[in-house]
Protein 1
Amino acid sequence: MKEAIAILTGGGPAPGINTVVGSVAKTFLAKGYRVIGLHYGYSGLFNENPHFEDLDLFKTDYIFNQGGSYLTMSRFKPTDKDFEQNFNLDFFKQNNIKLLVTIGGDDTASTANRIAKFLEAKQYPIANIHVPKTIDNDLPLPAGTPTFGYQSAKNAGSVIGRAVYNDARTSANWFVVAAMGRSAGHLAFGIASACHYPMIIIPEMFNKTTITIDKIINMMISSIIKRKIIGMDYGVAMISEGVFHALSEEEILKSGIHFSYDEHGHPELGKVSKAMMFNDILEKKLKEIGLKVKSRPVEIGYEVRCQTPCAFDLVYCSELGMGVYKLFSEGKTGCMVYISQEGYVSPLYLKDLQDPETGKIPPRLVDIHSDKIQQVIDNLMNFITPDDYEAARKYVANPETYDFRKILNW
């Protein structure tokens, strides 16, 4: 029987998934392997009747530059009981599968590591190689290497973001924009800095103080007042959804939002509009302090996940896909494929990235101290400083309350 590989995609979509799948498939097909695409993520490996199909050259050539994921995705997270009782080894044996390629983010990577350890303990001769994916850019890849999908999502988000900024200028309004990013602010900061937004709020900014809704609202008002002082009665404030992960239960209750949670225990932020919530609270606070400002909410979320990948991700994802074969041919397993900025392929072992206590891969956060970030804060953002106190008293009696750096305890 011809040797085969199986490919699955987990978590949420990101631009470039089909490019990885197509590139892996084309490479292995050219080497004489059968390529199987597994639908519904990990659930197929713990199912007696998995939904799968053969991927041939014509199919993969059609999908490689498309957005979305041809292979149906899933956030299924197997339990210890699933591993002991439901793992479908027959699927691997009957199809002569020698390699499992997993494509996903931190949760998918963590599960891939569990599978690699499980197969090793059971002495199953099946290799596992993971391809890191997330538009959040929060997997800890070396030397700041981006996760695939991030550049395309940032580009698509910036198209929306620029239109929003033009609307603000045209109509003399303010907009409150929220962008995806479960625990890190890479996407929000990337979009906002590309659009020169006068206020950007990401969780990493609160490195010296607790995140509260009041502080977030006061940071937005700080920018509104500063722009009034300099004669610009419009603007946009960007907020990363990651701030919700650092809010206390009390603060979340104060927001009035009740979250549902996914299989991995994460609040399903995509089901609620963070922009709407913060805009409502901002409007109430502006009315309370007597500032006449019109504001509108805009959510940047699912719109950027299935975009057609940009040139960066088309090339990067092709390199990752071909890199899977290179690592496999070298006998590597239980690792992620990593492409250095110089273009070299190497294995990045999941066990070396995991937290030894939790077993999870910690997120890569925005380095708030870097010149890249500090220059945007110092030169592009607008907010109240002590030099503005006198002019700000025209709008508020207590400008110190809206001092950006004081709010953050910087």
Protein 2
Amino acid sequence: MRTLLGTSILATLLVSASFYAGQDPAVANAAAPGNDVSVGSGFRLLRLAIPADGRVGDILRKNAAISGGFEVIDRRSIPASLVRASNFDKKAWADIGAETVVLADEVGGQFKFRLYDIASGDRPVLARGYAANDPLKAANRFMNDIIEHYTKIPGVFGSRIAFVRTTRTPTVSKNVYTVEMNGEAPSSVTSNRSLNILPSIGPGGQVLFTSYAKRNPDLWMSAGGSLQRVSTQRGLNLGGTMSPDGGTIALTLSKDGNSEIYTVDSGGNIKARLTNNKAIDGSPSWNSGGNQLAFVSNRAGGPQVFRMAANGSGAARVTKQGSYNQSPDWNPGDGERGNMIAYSGRDNSNRYDIFAINLRGGKIKRITQNPGRNLDPTWSPDGRLIAFQSSQGGIYVANEDGNNQVQIVKAGSTPDWGPRAK
């Protein structure tokens, strides 16, 4: 699992009885919060009413809740007269505490959506029409429009998250799936009795993963519905992640006896060896520009997050608090967000949580502070949301401060968030 770097520990687990028994391996000690660690603060949500019924209404309400910007008014508390009304009654909606309202009607093979802002008057501040043959896609697109209206940046609904699901009958197997970021439209990438782990979604929607389907832990890729082996070096071909331009894959290889980071092309041909030392190096993550990589190394003793240039030069330690920091994910967002690397760790009270460090000043933000173990952070394509695995139950999505946590997958591990939907 991505949460267990160094990769030599992972290699042991992959062949151990506990792994084949489907037991969760222990996670070692990680980052401890200090004076320079901040925890996401609360904020006020806009009260949003969505009276629409059917699937499109359900998806709109779910998306609004996940977006982190709205307090969604329970549809059951909305007076029937407002639910049935064909016109917008500003005063009536204000009387039930709504600050914004989304109305949706199906007309002539289209969903007609309107967003009203109570403070802006009786006319919609946003109106769009989308084909009614796909309520999920229509609801996703309009929620993205709403987010763009308020933030000037489109939302990321419709993007997909890859993850692993474990089954234990008749034998333990691990298969890769993807799901939309709101938990809708799950799809299987693999469906075999082998171990398929560590999925990563490329810029074109390709899914990379490591599989034991041919006995050796090879790197595979799913693209356009077909599966192909990419890297088949002896030993580990682990944790492949594709560069933002899609031209290069960074991964961990142990072909020479030690776990090192390499780059290969889409055919598995080695382009470069990026690390070359006695330490265990792995878990590479690209920055948005494709010119740097974050990774995990135990060259400082215990596992810590490092970064280096895409050619392997200039490696420097990033995390300096705690004895065990792991599974880095570089924020793909613009501006200051692009300086953030999320990672998972354990604090001094044995709490496993998600942290993010700002590369400019080294300030650490604690994103989760939940019971159980919170592992494997992965940023949304705009860098404003984050998904992670929780032992409390599957995969959650939260905002970048860790607030508004919503479960999207009940049983899953090692999530990776893909690009915006096209």
Protein 3
Amino acid sequence: MIPGFASRRRFSDLSEQEVLALAISSEEDDARIYRTYAERLRADFPSSAAVFEAMAKEEDTHRHWLIERHKARFGDVIPLIRREHVAGFYARRPVWLVENLGLDRMRSEAEAMEREAEAFYRRAAAATKDAETRKLLGDLAAAEAKHEKKAGDLAEAHLDEEAKGEEDRAAHRQFVLTWVQPGLAGLMDGSVSTLAPIFATAFATQDTWTTFLVGLAAAVGAGISMGFTEVASDDGVLSGRGSPMKRGISAGVMTTLGGLGHALPYLIPDFWTATVIAIAIVFVELWAIVWIQNRYMETPFLRATFQVVLGGALVFAAGVLIGGG
């Protein structure tokens, strides 16, 4: 059983009332995010802030329409259901990370939000049997499609490099969602999660071949687990992240490579030579992960250092203490 996944419901299992409730909470969340963006941009890019503020007001209007439809169909009590309760929804970026986003990245986030919302409403409209509800959901899908275009054009007045074609930008965005993000997550997981078993075995046995076999098994096992988790967690229909098989392959392969990095030195017969090289590789791996998190995931450098380097050092120390004890 995959931790945290079994409690998430599939979209196809939701009732019509739950779909409306999910739409209401999603519109509320998106409006809050757009207002946060507007506040962040107001001083330097007032026109762009005004666009985000207008988008937030439209989301408020959509939420009002959905609430009125829910009252007409099911009454005043709206079930509590949010995106994180449903498998396949792409997680929204926590609003406290907005301080680390530039205008171009805010635009990209907004495009992804609106694209997912459009896909959600089209799928919801196709599944509902009530004519009025179906019309409302279809109208909302069309409105979200207009929002996506508005978000896509948002930064052009301020960023010359945004003069790329929409087709190229969409292809790049899809490549990042399908291959890069799962691969980076796998690389980080494989590098850190295999430290303890490899170095515990190394110091317990001082046998380089046994240590290599344990490291190989840990890396391959982690890769298989990470790959299957990625495949099972999101079918890509609502999130737009692309084929689950491609994402699973990316996550699985990179997790395996992350674990093999400090296992391969133990192909060297001399124990201490292999261990010194493995420790040096671990040092490089941890700082590379810090750089990746800071560069591609907008994690503040000091926070990434604390999470990755300190966390990795503790895992490494645990392995050494267990093996040396």
Protein 4
Amino acid sequence: MDHEPTISRDVSAKPANLKPAKGRGLGRDVVVASICGGVVALMVGASYAAVPFYNWFCRATGFNGTTQVATSAPANGPIARKISVRFDSNVAPGLPWKFEPEQSEIEVNIGQVVTVFYTVTNQAARTTAGQAAYNVAPLTVGSYFQKINCFCFTEQTMAPGEKREMPVVFYVDPSIAEDHENDGLNTITLSYTFYPVKDPVVKPLAASEDDKRKGNL
């Protein structure tokens, strides 16, 4: 009986026409790249939005010692409890100004509207500009410290050698007396730091200091 020829088969060989794996790999790479690009774009957008959102959050909550902005005196008026308010002043490098409070500390009734002055002098022989940042300490009382008028809201441009008095009108909200976490609070520190402004906005000359004092609350 004749034997049929034996045909050797290579089981590891793959059909020559099976080529979809490469296409599937490219498609997956495109999807992964698109997702990564979207994540990067989202992170960049979030970084730009973080600063204004953080500023809004601080103003709304008093977080990190950010003071509040009021338009008038408190409706329920001052209360008998008193508190000391200290005034701190700083100038960032690059701004040739002398900046200091006229009083280092005062004692006020909670709810009492008070006006204090800071003095700033441009010690340079050229016009310079700056803008102040501020906060209060302890940081948890920012939501109770209400400012009606403050020089920090606007850019300040000063002529060579100019000296200026800048008012701050504020009160401590009486509702702080209802916050028992602050029952032992005796002192609040209001701190300002002036930073240089590289491209100041040209503004008309300021009024005299006597006129400023007459026009303040």
